[in-house]
Amino acid sequence: MPVNLNRQSIDDAHERISKYIHRTPVLTSRKIDSLVGNGTQLFFKCENLQKTGSFKSRGALNAILTAKERGDFKGVITHSSGNHGQGLAWAANMLGVPCIVVAPNDSSIAKMDAIRAYGAKIEFCEPSMTSREETCERLSKENGYLLIHSHNDYDIMAGQGTITKEFREQVPNLDVLLVAIGGGGFIGGISAYVKETNSRIKVFAVEPQGKEFQNSLEADRNLCDSEALLDTIADGAKLIRVADKCFPIIYECCQHRVFSVNDEELANAMLIIMQYLKVTSCGKTVKANEVDLLVRAFSLGKLHHAMPVTQSIAIGAAAAIPGTLVNLAAGGGKKNAVRIGHPPGILKVGMEVEEKDNEWKMKRRK
Protein backbone atom coordinates (compact mmCIF):
# COMPACT_ATOMS: atom_id res chain seq x y z
CA MET A 1 0.00 0.00 0.00
CA PRO A 2 1.36 3.49 -0.82
CA VAL A 3 3.16 5.20 2.06
CA ASN A 4 1.12 8.36 1.46
CA LEU A 5 -2.20 6.56 1.97
CA ASN A 6 -2.38 4.91 5.37
CA ARG A 7 -4.02 5.27 8.76
CA GLN A 8 -1.90 8.30 9.65
CA SER A 9 -2.67 10.18 6.44
CA ILE A 10 -6.39 9.50 6.86
CA ASP A 11 -6.34 10.53 10.54
CA ASP A 12 -4.53 13.71 9.47
CA ALA A 13 -7.14 14.31 6.78
CA HIS A 14 -9.92 13.98 9.32
CA GLU A 15 -8.24 16.49 11.61
CA ARG A 16 -7.93 18.91 8.68
CA ILE A 17 -11.50 18.72 7.42
CA SER A 18 -13.64 17.82 10.44
CA LYS A 19 -14.45 21.41 11.40
CA TYR A 20 -15.81 22.11 7.91
CA ILE A 21 -17.86 19.00 7.16
CA HIS A 22 -20.83 17.19 8.68
CA ARG A 23 -20.39 14.11 10.83
CA THR A 24 -23.09 12.31 8.90
CA PRO A 25 -25.60 10.14 10.76
CA VAL A 26 -25.89 6.37 10.72
CA LEU A 27 -29.45 5.11 10.22
CA THR A 28 -30.99 1.71 10.91
CA SER A 29 -34.29 0.05 10.08
CA ARG A 30 -35.71 -3.13 11.59
CA LYS A 31 -37.91 -3.53 8.54
CA ILE A 32 -34.92 -3.53 6.18
CA ASP A 33 -33.09 -5.92 8.52
CA SER A 34 -36.06 -8.28 8.32
CA LEU A 35 -35.97 -8.16 4.50
CA VAL A 36 -32.35 -9.33 4.61
CA GLY A 37 -33.01 -11.95 7.30
CA ASN A 38 -30.57 -14.29 9.08
CA GLY A 39 -30.27 -11.89 12.01
CA THR A 40 -28.31 -9.40 9.91
CA GLN A 41 -28.30 -5.80 11.10
CA LEU A 42 -27.62 -3.07 8.54
CA PHE A 43 -26.15 0.37 9.24
CA PHE A 44 -26.42 3.12 6.64
CA LYS A 45 -23.79 5.88 6.72
CA CYS A 46 -25.70 8.76 5.12
CA GLU A 47 -23.19 10.70 3.05
CA ASN A 48 -26.09 12.01 0.98
CA LEU A 49 -26.51 14.41 3.92
CA GLN A 50 -22.91 15.62 3.59
CA LYS A 51 -21.94 19.09 2.36
CA THR A 52 -22.86 19.37 -1.36
CA GLY A 53 -24.85 16.13 -1.06
CA SER A 54 -22.08 13.55 -1.33
CA PHE A 55 -18.83 12.24 0.15
CA LYS A 56 -16.91 14.03 -2.61
CA SER A 57 -16.60 17.18 -0.51
CA ARG A 58 -14.38 15.28 1.97
CA GLY A 59 -11.71 14.40 -0.56
CA ALA A 60 -11.86 17.73 -2.39
CA LEU A 61 -11.44 19.70 0.83
CA ASN A 62 -8.56 17.54 2.03
CA ALA A 63 -6.79 17.87 -1.32
CA ILE A 64 -6.96 21.68 -1.30
CA LEU A 65 -5.97 22.00 2.37
CA THR A 66 -3.04 19.62 1.85
CA ALA A 67 -1.94 21.58 -1.23
CA LYS A 68 -2.03 24.81 0.77
CA GLU A 69 0.24 23.21 3.38
CA ARG A 70 2.72 22.20 0.68
CA GLY A 71 3.05 25.61 -0.94
CA ASP A 72 1.47 28.36 -3.03
CA PHE A 73 -0.69 27.75 -6.09
CA LYS A 74 -2.92 30.01 -8.18
CA GLY A 75 -6.07 27.92 -8.18
CA VAL A 76 -7.50 24.44 -8.71
CA ILE A 77 -9.01 22.68 -11.70
CA THR A 78 -10.71 19.35 -12.30
CA HIS A 79 -12.99 17.59 -14.75
CA SER A 80 -16.33 16.34 -13.49
CA SER A 81 -19.92 15.86 -14.58
CA GLY A 82 -21.30 16.54 -11.13
CA ASN A 83 -20.49 15.54 -7.56
CA HIS A 84 -16.69 16.00 -7.53
CA GLY A 85 -17.06 19.30 -9.34
CA GLN A 86 -19.53 20.50 -6.72
CA GLY A 87 -17.30 19.29 -3.89
CA LEU A 88 -14.21 21.02 -5.28
CA ALA A 89 -16.11 24.23 -6.07
CA TRP A 90 -17.54 24.32 -2.54
CA ALA A 91 -14.16 23.70 -0.89
CA ALA A 92 -12.37 26.23 -3.11
CA ASN A 93 -15.02 28.87 -2.48
CA MET A 94 -14.84 28.38 1.28
CA LEU A 95 -11.04 28.66 1.24
CA GLY A 96 -10.90 31.58 -1.20
CA VAL A 97 -9.24 29.60 -3.99
CA PRO A 98 -10.15 30.15 -7.69
CA CYS A 99 -11.63 27.04 -9.31
CA ILE A 100 -12.33 25.79 -12.83
CA VAL A 101 -14.46 22.72 -13.53
CA VAL A 102 -14.27 21.10 -16.97
CA ALA A 103 -17.60 19.39 -17.70
CA PRO A 104 -19.02 17.43 -20.64
CA ASN A 105 -21.54 19.45 -22.63
CA ASP A 106 -24.34 16.99 -21.84
CA SER A 107 -24.05 17.41 -18.07
CA SER A 108 -27.04 17.88 -15.79
CA ILE A 109 -28.11 21.53 -15.81
CA ALA A 110 -28.94 21.30 -12.12
CA LYS A 111 -25.45 20.11 -11.20
CA MET A 112 -23.83 22.80 -13.34
CA ASP A 113 -25.99 25.45 -11.65
CA ALA A 114 -24.82 24.16 -8.27
CA ILE A 115 -21.16 24.37 -9.34
CA ARG A 116 -21.65 27.95 -10.53
CA ALA A 117 -23.40 28.83 -7.28
CA TYR A 118 -20.19 27.96 -5.43
CA GLY A 119 -18.31 30.47 -7.57
CA ALA A 120 -16.45 28.11 -9.89
CA LYS A 121 -15.99 28.73 -13.60
CA ILE A 122 -17.24 25.96 -15.91
CA GLU A 123 -15.54 25.09 -19.20
CA PHE A 124 -17.54 22.68 -21.36
CA CYS A 125 -16.03 20.00 -23.60
CA GLU A 126 -17.12 17.02 -25.68
CA PRO A 127 -18.64 14.17 -23.60
CA SER A 128 -15.68 11.80 -23.72
CA MET A 129 -13.01 11.04 -21.14
CA THR A 130 -10.28 11.93 -23.63
CA SER A 131 -11.78 15.36 -24.26
CA ARG A 132 -12.27 15.97 -20.55
CA GLU A 133 -8.68 15.08 -19.70
CA GLU A 134 -7.14 17.00 -22.60
CA THR A 135 -9.19 20.14 -21.90
CA CYS A 136 -8.39 19.95 -18.21
CA GLU A 137 -4.66 19.53 -18.82
CA ARG A 138 -4.58 22.43 -21.31
CA LEU A 139 -6.42 24.83 -19.00
CA SER A 140 -4.30 23.73 -16.05
CA LYS A 141 -1.13 24.73 -17.92
CA GLU A 142 -2.62 27.97 -19.29
CA ASN A 143 -3.80 29.17 -15.88
CA GLY A 144 -1.17 27.61 -13.67
CA TYR A 145 -3.89 25.82 -11.69
CA LEU A 146 -3.37 22.66 -9.66
CA LEU A 147 -5.15 19.66 -11.17
CA ILE A 148 -7.12 17.71 -8.56
CA HIS A 149 -8.42 14.44 -9.98
CA SER A 150 -11.75 13.12 -8.77
CA HIS A 151 -10.34 9.77 -7.60
CA ASN A 152 -6.83 9.04 -8.94
CA ASP A 153 -5.24 11.05 -6.12
CA TYR A 154 -3.99 9.92 -2.70
CA ASP A 155 -5.15 13.12 -0.95
CA ILE A 156 -8.63 12.58 -2.38
CA MET A 157 -8.62 8.97 -1.19
CA ALA A 158 -7.43 10.01 2.27
CA GLY A 159 -10.35 12.43 2.49
CA GLN A 160 -12.83 9.73 1.48
CA GLY A 161 -11.25 7.38 4.02
CA THR A 162 -12.35 9.68 6.85
CA ILE A 163 -15.81 8.18 6.40
CA THR A 164 -14.50 4.90 7.84
CA LYS A 165 -12.94 6.60 10.85
CA GLU A 166 -16.31 8.15 11.72
CA PHE A 167 -18.29 5.02 10.89
CA ARG A 168 -16.20 2.83 13.19
CA GLU A 169 -16.60 5.33 16.02
CA GLN A 170 -20.36 5.32 15.50
CA VAL A 171 -20.67 1.53 15.06
CA PRO A 172 -17.65 -0.15 16.72
CA ASN A 173 -18.49 -3.76 15.87
CA LEU A 174 -18.86 -3.68 12.10
CA ASP A 175 -18.27 -6.99 10.33
CA VAL A 176 -18.71 -6.10 6.65
CA LEU A 177 -18.60 -2.92 4.58
CA LEU A 178 -20.40 -2.82 1.23
CA VAL A 179 -18.95 0.05 -0.80
CA ALA A 180 -19.86 1.31 -4.27
CA ILE A 181 -17.10 1.34 -6.87
CA GLY A 182 -16.78 3.74 -9.78
CA GLY A 183 -13.31 5.11 -10.43
CA GLY A 184 -12.05 3.56 -7.20
CA GLY A 185 -11.20 6.54 -4.97
CA PHE A 186 -14.11 6.04 -2.59
CA ILE A 187 -13.55 2.35 -1.87
CA GLY A 188 -9.77 2.86 -2.03
CA GLY A 189 -9.74 5.30 0.87
CA ILE A 190 -12.28 3.34 2.90
CA SER A 191 -10.57 -0.04 2.50
CA ALA A 192 -7.10 1.37 3.19
CA TYR A 193 -8.22 2.61 6.61
CA VAL A 194 -9.92 -0.70 7.41
CA LYS A 195 -6.80 -2.66 6.43
CA GLU A 196 -4.67 -0.84 9.02
CA THR A 197 -7.19 -0.46 11.85
CA ASN A 198 -9.19 -3.69 11.81
CA SER A 199 -8.47 -6.19 9.08
CA ARG A 200 -11.22 -8.44 10.52
CA ILE A 201 -13.74 -6.19 8.75
CA LYS A 202 -14.39 -7.43 5.22
CA VAL A 203 -14.79 -4.81 2.49
CA PHE A 204 -16.71 -5.76 -0.65
CA ALA A 205 -17.08 -3.71 -3.83
CA VAL A 206 -20.59 -3.21 -5.23
CA GLU A 207 -20.78 -2.29 -8.91
CA PRO A 208 -23.44 -1.52 -11.53
CA GLN A 209 -23.96 -4.43 -13.89
CA GLY A 210 -21.58 -4.32 -16.84
CA LYS A 211 -18.45 -3.08 -15.07
CA GLU A 212 -17.14 -6.63 -14.46
CA PHE A 213 -14.49 -5.63 -11.93
CA GLN A 214 -14.46 -9.24 -10.71
CA ASN A 215 -12.48 -10.14 -13.84
CA SER A 216 -9.71 -7.73 -12.84
CA LEU A 217 -9.41 -9.19 -9.36
CA GLU A 218 -9.22 -12.72 -10.76
CA ALA A 219 -6.63 -11.70 -13.37
CA ASP A 220 -4.47 -9.93 -10.77
CA ARG A 221 -4.37 -6.83 -12.98
CA ASN A 222 -6.60 -3.92 -13.88
CA LEU A 223 -8.76 -4.84 -16.88
CA CYS A 224 -11.22 -1.97 -16.30
CA ASP A 225 -9.53 0.52 -18.61
CA SER A 226 -12.32 1.46 -21.01
CA GLU A 227 -13.21 5.13 -21.44
CA ALA A 228 -16.84 4.22 -22.02
CA LEU A 229 -19.52 4.95 -19.45
CA LEU A 230 -22.03 2.40 -18.19
CA ASP A 231 -25.70 2.84 -19.03
CA THR A 232 -26.98 2.74 -15.45
CA ILE A 233 -29.23 4.69 -13.14
CA ALA A 234 -26.30 4.78 -10.67
CA ASP A 235 -25.18 8.17 -11.97
CA GLY A 236 -22.18 8.42 -9.65
CA ALA A 237 -20.76 5.02 -10.63
CA LYS A 238 -20.86 5.09 -14.42
CA LEU A 239 -17.11 4.89 -14.92
CA ILE A 240 -15.84 1.56 -16.20
CA ARG A 241 -12.21 2.53 -15.76
CA VAL A 242 -10.66 1.99 -12.32
CA ALA A 243 -7.80 4.44 -11.77
CA ASP A 244 -4.20 3.25 -11.73
CA LYS A 245 -3.52 4.50 -8.19
CA CYS A 246 -6.73 2.96 -6.89
CA PHE A 247 -6.51 -0.58 -8.26
CA PRO A 248 -3.51 -1.83 -6.20
CA ILE A 249 -5.12 -0.53 -3.00
CA ILE A 250 -8.45 -2.18 -3.75
CA TYR A 251 -6.70 -5.40 -4.78
CA GLU A 252 -4.78 -5.52 -1.49
CA CYS A 253 -7.45 -4.28 0.92
CA CYS A 254 -10.78 -5.61 -0.39
CA GLN A 255 -12.31 -9.05 -0.69
CA HIS A 256 -11.92 -10.57 -4.14
CA ARG A 257 -15.65 -10.96 -4.54
CA VAL A 258 -17.63 -8.22 -6.28
CA PHE A 259 -21.40 -7.79 -6.03
CA SER A 260 -22.91 -6.69 -9.33
CA VAL A 261 -26.42 -5.19 -9.35
CA ASN A 262 -28.68 -4.30 -12.25
CA ASP A 263 -30.92 -1.26 -12.61
CA GLU A 264 -34.02 -3.04 -11.36
CA GLU A 265 -32.23 -4.12 -8.18
CA LEU A 266 -30.83 -0.62 -7.72
CA ALA A 267 -34.25 0.91 -8.22
CA ASN A 268 -35.88 -1.40 -5.70
CA ALA A 269 -33.17 -0.63 -3.15
CA MET A 270 -33.67 3.10 -3.65
CA LEU A 271 -37.39 2.69 -3.15
CA ILE A 272 -36.84 0.67 0.03
CA ILE A 273 -34.58 3.27 1.63
CA MET A 274 -37.04 5.98 0.65
CA GLN A 275 -39.88 4.06 2.31
CA TYR A 276 -38.15 2.97 5.51
CA LEU A 277 -35.26 5.39 6.09
CA LYS A 278 -36.98 8.47 4.63
CA VAL A 279 -33.83 9.44 2.76
CA THR A 280 -32.86 9.27 -0.90
CA SER A 281 -29.80 8.33 -2.89
CA CYS A 282 -28.47 9.66 -6.16
CA GLY A 283 -30.07 8.35 -9.32
CA LYS A 284 -29.90 9.21 -12.97
CA THR A 285 -29.55 12.80 -14.16
CA VAL A 286 -32.14 14.64 -16.23
CA LYS A 287 -31.82 14.83 -20.00
CA ALA A 288 -33.81 17.19 -22.22
CA ASN A 289 -36.10 14.42 -23.46
CA GLU A 290 -36.32 12.22 -20.39
CA VAL A 291 -37.07 12.43 -16.72
CA ASP A 292 -36.06 9.46 -14.65
CA LEU A 293 -37.86 9.75 -11.36
CA LEU A 294 -35.03 8.05 -9.52
CA VAL A 295 -33.24 11.31 -8.80
CA ARG A 296 -32.25 12.76 -5.47
CA ALA A 297 -35.69 14.28 -5.13
CA PHE A 298 -37.87 12.48 -2.64
CA SER A 299 -38.79 14.31 0.55
CA LEU A 300 -41.06 12.48 2.97
CA GLY A 301 -43.52 11.39 0.33
CA LYS A 302 -43.57 14.53 -1.80
CA LEU A 303 -41.56 15.92 -4.67
CA HIS A 304 -41.25 19.69 -4.85
CA HIS A 305 -39.14 21.29 -7.60
CA ALA A 306 -36.98 18.22 -7.58
CA MET A 307 -34.52 19.38 -10.22
CA PRO A 308 -34.08 23.17 -10.29
CA VAL A 309 -33.56 23.55 -14.01
CA THR A 310 -35.16 25.70 -16.68
CA GLN A 311 -38.81 24.90 -16.13
CA SER A 312 -40.94 23.30 -13.43
CA ILE A 313 -44.06 21.34 -14.35
CA ALA A 314 -46.70 19.44 -12.41
CA ILE A 315 -47.19 15.77 -13.18
CA GLY A 316 -50.80 15.60 -12.10
CA ALA A 317 -51.83 12.86 -14.49
CA ALA A 318 -49.07 10.48 -13.45
CA ALA A 319 -49.71 11.18 -9.77
CA ALA A 320 -53.33 10.14 -10.20
CA ILE A 321 -52.49 6.72 -11.66
CA PRO A 322 -52.13 3.96 -9.03
CA GLY A 323 -48.95 1.95 -9.47
CA THR A 324 -46.69 4.76 -10.66
CA LEU A 325 -43.75 6.01 -8.64
CA VAL A 326 -45.20 9.51 -8.66
CA ASN A 327 -48.45 8.21 -7.20
CA LEU A 328 -46.53 6.43 -4.47
CA ALA A 329 -44.47 9.54 -3.73
CA ALA A 330 -47.60 11.66 -3.48
CA GLY A 331 -49.17 9.13 -1.16
CA GLY A 332 -51.74 8.29 -3.79
CA GLY A 333 -53.40 11.60 -3.04
CA LYS A 334 -52.89 15.22 -3.98
CA LYS A 335 -51.91 15.44 -7.59
CA ASN A 336 -50.35 18.86 -7.33
CA ALA A 337 -48.07 17.75 -4.49
CA VAL A 338 -45.67 16.25 -7.00
CA ARG A 339 -43.49 18.58 -9.05
CA ILE A 340 -40.40 17.88 -11.08
CA GLY A 341 -38.19 20.46 -12.74
CA HIS A 342 -37.78 19.56 -16.41
CA PRO A 343 -36.41 21.45 -19.42
CA PRO A 344 -38.68 21.92 -22.44
CA GLY A 345 -39.12 18.70 -24.35
CA ILE A 346 -40.81 15.33 -23.98
CA LEU A 347 -41.53 14.06 -20.48
CA LYS A 348 -40.81 10.37 -20.08
CA VAL A 349 -41.20 8.43 -16.84
CA GLY A 350 -38.33 5.98 -16.72
CA MET A 351 -39.48 3.62 -13.95
CA GLU A 352 -42.78 2.26 -12.69
CA VAL A 353 -43.90 0.67 -9.45
CA GLU A 354 -46.23 -2.24 -8.79
CA GLU A 355 -47.47 -3.90 -5.63
CA LYS A 356 -46.79 -7.62 -5.41
CA ASP A 357 -47.06 -9.84 -2.35
CA ASN A 358 -47.71 -6.76 -0.20
CA GLU A 359 -44.41 -5.21 -1.30
CA TRP A 360 -43.72 -2.38 -3.73
CA LYS A 361 -41.49 -3.44 -6.62
CA MET A 362 -39.89 -1.15 -9.19
CA LYS A 363 -38.93 -1.92 -12.75
CA ARG A 364 -37.77 -0.04 -15.81
CA ARG A 365 -40.65 1.08 -18.00
CA LYS A 366 -40.38 -0.35 -21.52
From TrEMBL:
Which SUPFAM superfamilies would you find in this protein's record?
A: Diaminopimelate epimerase-like (SSF54506), Tryptophan synthase beta subunit-like PLP-dependent enzymes (SSF53686)
Q: Which Pfam families match?
A: PALP
Name any one GO molecular function.
pyridoxal phosphate binding
Q: Which UniProt keywords apply?
A: Lyase, Magnesium, Pyridoxal phosphate
| EC code | 4.3.1.17, 4.3.1.18, 5.1.1.18
Sorted alphabetically, the Gene Ontology BP terms of this entry are: D-serine biosynthetic process; L-serine metabolic process
Domain of life where this protein originates:
Eukaryota
Tell me the PROSITE patterns matching this sequence: DEHYDRATASE_SER_THR
Q: Which cofactors does this gene product need?
A: Mg(2+); Mn(2+); Ca(2+); pyridoxal 5'-phosphate
Q: Which residues form the Tryptophan synthase beta chain-like PALP domain?
A: 17-279
Entry's InterPro entries? Ser/Thr_deHydtase_PyrdxlP-BS, TrpB-like_PALP, TrpB-like_PALP_sf
Q: What's the catalysed reaction?
A: L-serine = pyruvate + NH4(+); L-serine = D-serine; D-serine = pyruvate + NH4(+)
What family is this?
Answer: Belongs to the serine/threonine dehydratase family.
| Role of this protein | Catalyzes the synthesis of D-serine from L-serine. D-serine is a key coagonist with glutamate at NMDA receptors. Has dehydratase activity towards both L-serine and D-serine.
Q: State the name under which the record lists this protein.
A: Serine racemase
Q: What is the organism of origin for this protein?
A: Acrobeloides nanus
